[in-house]
Amino acid sequence: MDRFNAMQAFRAVAELGNLTAAAKRLNLSKSVVSKQIAALEQHLGVRLLNRTTRRVRLTDAGQHYHERCAHILGELEDLEGAMQAVHEQPTGQLRVTVPVSFGQRHLAPLLPGFLAAYPGINVDITLDDRHIDLVAAGMDAAVRISELGDSSLIARRLGACEGWIAAAPDYLARNGTPLEPQDLAHHNCLVYAYAPHASEWAFTDAARRPQRVAVSGNLRANNGETLIQAAVQGTGIIRVPDFLAADAVDDGRLERVLSAYGTDNPGIYIVYPYTRHVSARLRAFIDYLSNAFRGNGTGGGLGRR
Known about the structure:
Blueprint: H1 3-16, H2 19-26, H3 30-44, E1 49-51, E2 56-58, H4 60-87, E3 92-98, H5 100-107, H6 111-117, E4 121-127, H7 134-137, E5 141-145, E6 153-160, E7 163-167, H8 169-175, E8 189-192, E9 200-204, E10 210-214, E11 220-221, H9 224-232, E12 237-241, H10 242-250, E13 255-256, E14 267-273, H11 280-295
Parallel strand pairs: 3-4, 3-5, 8-11, 8-12
Antiparallel strand pairs: 1-2, 5-14, 6-14, 7-12, 7-13, 9-10
């Protein structure tokens, strides 16, 4: 039995609660993972997992072993990362999750340059607007566009964006232009499903007093590009980040409304789980993105890149 590989297999199963998911993370077959854990249990002389047809659960001994196992493997991974950093030759796989539209518009153009600069790194990008549990999904980092609350994740700010309210000129000609936030109650508002308080849009007036307006409409989507396309066709009013709406506003397909009122201005962050030593490959990726976005003026918003 290769004890190191068996410990990695056990940690993956313990974190994901599923042999199939663990096998996918480790790029192994399900049968290999099962055999590794069985060999580990035989070696230790204790049962670590209780298996059912759908999930596996840690025994008391398994819970204790997982805590120590995760710590030991984390120390080894940190040591490898530190050694890579010393030699300045980052290698290995880097798994990152990124919001769909942001990834397509702003991250994708940067990837060829990063891969050319660091040929030893293999990048696995997952485009997903949801906030994925990074540890459970085996992700190294995530790009998130939001105001971060209390979190166990470490965050580095890459830039900012501004929330814009916009609609097609045709829609406004047919339905009137809202002059204050309360007017939105009489409009068809297209809602981004993953936004906090999705059906309640926040504003501040000239005196910086906050107000929230309940909105409703006939379209709710978990992707900003979908809302942009519907708005351009005159379906309703949207609230989306400036980097999504800027092109359509510039060419006249959309018109900004309520621009005198402040809206949410979320930060753009790259976040990653806490570890004492960030791997050389993740450090290289973070620094590359930070330099690229700073060079393109994202500190004041992405809309005019």
